[in-house]
From TrEMBL:
Catalysis: reaction(s): ATP-independent breakage of single-stranded DNA, followed by passage and rejoining
Homology family: Belongs to the type IA topoisomerase family.
Protein name: DNA topoisomerase 1
Domain Topo IA-type catalytic: 128-572
Species name: Chryseobacterium flavum
Gene that this polypeptide is encoded by: topA
Amino acid sequence: MSKNLVIVESPAKAKTIQKYLGKDFEVKSSFGHIRDLPKKGMGIDLATFSPDYEVSADKKKLVTELKAAVKKADMVWLASDEDREGEAIAWHLADELKLKPENRKRIVFHEITKNAILKAIDNPRDIDQNLVNAQQARRVLDRIVGFEMSPVLWKKVKPGLSAGRVQSVAVRLIVEREKEIREFIPKASFKLDGVFLNNTGQEIAAKLKKDFEKEKEAEHFLEQAKTTEFKVLNVETKPGTRSASAPFTTSTLQQEASSRLGYNVTSTMRLAQRLYEEGYITYMRTDSVNLSQEAIEGAKKQIISEYGAEYSSPRNYTTKSASAQEAHEAIRPTDFAVKSIGDAQLNKLYQLIYRRTLASQMANAKIEKTVIEIGNTSLPYHFEAQGEVIIFDGFLKAYGIVKAEDDDEENNEKLLPKVKVGEVLDYKSITATEKFTKPSARYTEAGLVRKLEELGIGRPSTYAPTIQTIQNREYVDKREIEPQTREVIKMSLVKDKIKKVIVNEKFGGDKNKFVPTDIGEVVNDFLTDNFKEILDYGFTARVEESFDEIASGDQKWKEMMTNFYSKFHPRIEDVEENADRATGDRLLGVDPKTGKNVHARIGRFGAMIQIGETDDEEKPIFASLMAGQNIATITFEEAMELFKLPFDLNEFEGQPVSVGVGRFGPYVKWGETFISIPKGEDPLSVDQNRAEEIINEKKKADAPIATYKGEPVTKGTGRFGPFIKYKDIFVNVPKKYNFDNLSQSDINELIDAKLEKEANRYIQQWEKEKISLENGRWGPFIKFGKAMFKIPKKKDDTKYEAEELKQISLEEVKKWITDQDKNAFAEKKKPAAKKTAATKKTTAAKKTAVKKK
């Protein structure tokens, strides 16, 4: 048996390391953290800020296995990642597995290569408690903020909401940008573009160096240009250089993978994790741009062999951020001789990292910039043409150029023809186009990461989970914003004639950018009104600095927590007691039919329009907003249109037809079938003919594609992908099948496999009681309604086999359920009778009187 036990976090990492260490070492995985704060309850003693860690249920078996492996080993090597999270994993392992200092060693490496692993084994250290405490401080502070702020949101806004130190600040950035866009007033000006011809007929595109505010001014300039002889007034050629960017940090990798590969932050980090664990790149959570001397030499060798000595320019970069965590390297390939890897998806990201690292060690690109001034001394303003020629491509040979997110599309620099000063040019056309200023762009995932990093909020490991959380909570989404249309004036001077036209221009549309939801805006406004300090960008950045100080041993984490909580908790109590409820309520106007107020607000089920007041004797009426509508921007007219839904149409094939809008958007209802109206189509425009078209399209899509044992089989695409349906059974269709052209044998094979799986699913079933004993992925379990319960062990502490469970009585199973949930079979209380409107008014009056006193 191996005398050395190595514990890492992931099985992929374990597999890679095992092949380097040989028979004397056994490598096992902890599958991340083996223990954490409990899922239910805060799990923190607020008097001492001591966390009450526990081994989660799904890790108990693993911990037992690790304890058994520890008993057989002479030395345990804790080899989790070299950041704070990794240090905390090592500490939890040492504590839970009861490892003595003399029988444990902590090793770290930032790349999974044979040299790095063996070097780490030769240079062990002990667990760095300062790094552990920095991770504990973050975990405990964020748990307290979430657990104390979230119930305030449930009480003051809507049940089921959550708040968090970093996530709430990220939502604030997106909400503030959206408000800025709404309040933006575009200003118009006229920009002039000219196309000129030299004596050989070559075109030179140029821009006037002056914009005109008024149409008349632009038109006057065109009148002047009619009779002007255009000349080359000046030609200026300047040498220039372009230098490569530094190697990747976590943040810059996320941004570049977004702009070049279209990957979201979560996908980038998942692929980077695999590249690291399989030994292709160095550690992927870093804010350092530093490269080791070994890496610089490796890149130099590769550049000289592939491109030539003139392309090599070795250099090191320094990290600008004062708060950069630990002495990591930048993200780079572990071996520059490996130019590509087999997995296509992994290879795309690997290529990006490989080429960026090579480029950072390559010579600057040399360019020649040419500026031609065109005009006449009689004109008040002149045109300018800019062009660029690459004299030596340098690092561009490996990395190329990519446009930044906010680059102006019109600034395309190009190659210009040779001209001389004084040369006469003919104008082919001069165009004055009305252009409007644009608001700041909405955030992409990459843009949000860049902003968080710029503000010092969060750290490399937090960007991806933060962005995922705010989408999961439905505070923000990436819905498509339909563009609006406006008229713009365009004047063209061609062959001494000025032609004026009015054209339509689309603006304000957006795709794949963050937009706040109604609930996101209401929650953000409530938090910024009541918890200004927690939502303050500077405060959040200062908390990160405190974590850095704890990591370096310059601050004690419990002292930091005491200082924070002494100010935070009283604020929670004050807001819970005194803050008003937040619904985002906007009074839109008065309903002409009833004379009642029309409100846009957040209700129990989301954004809605309400006619009437909640304390009126006659109940208010409600309408749901449609996709793309927002309580902050919906107009009175748009709101009143919603009350026309649902409406009935004529019967079709003997079944009633209606049009409405629900939580999944607008629909046509035919009998008991709900059919979604295509995206972007106004439900109010759906008449009888269109409704029948939609129904027929659905019938066609739902028509049987085959039969199985005489029963029809249909197909469709749901939230989990393509499926076929037989009776009431849905069968997922894997990618290996051609979904568009399924054969009868494919269908038989898929349904047979599903029925066999279903047949093996139930060990025993009591349908009337909604109780069953079922085979699951991790072994047999009890299902009662929608809840799942464990099967206890037998008296001899062994598990029940499936055959034994077939003999278990219903009464015994009920007892097992009751042991885990005492109220499982308790009768549910009937809801209390609702207060009448008169009672509500009396109660409200009493409350008012108390407040006045």
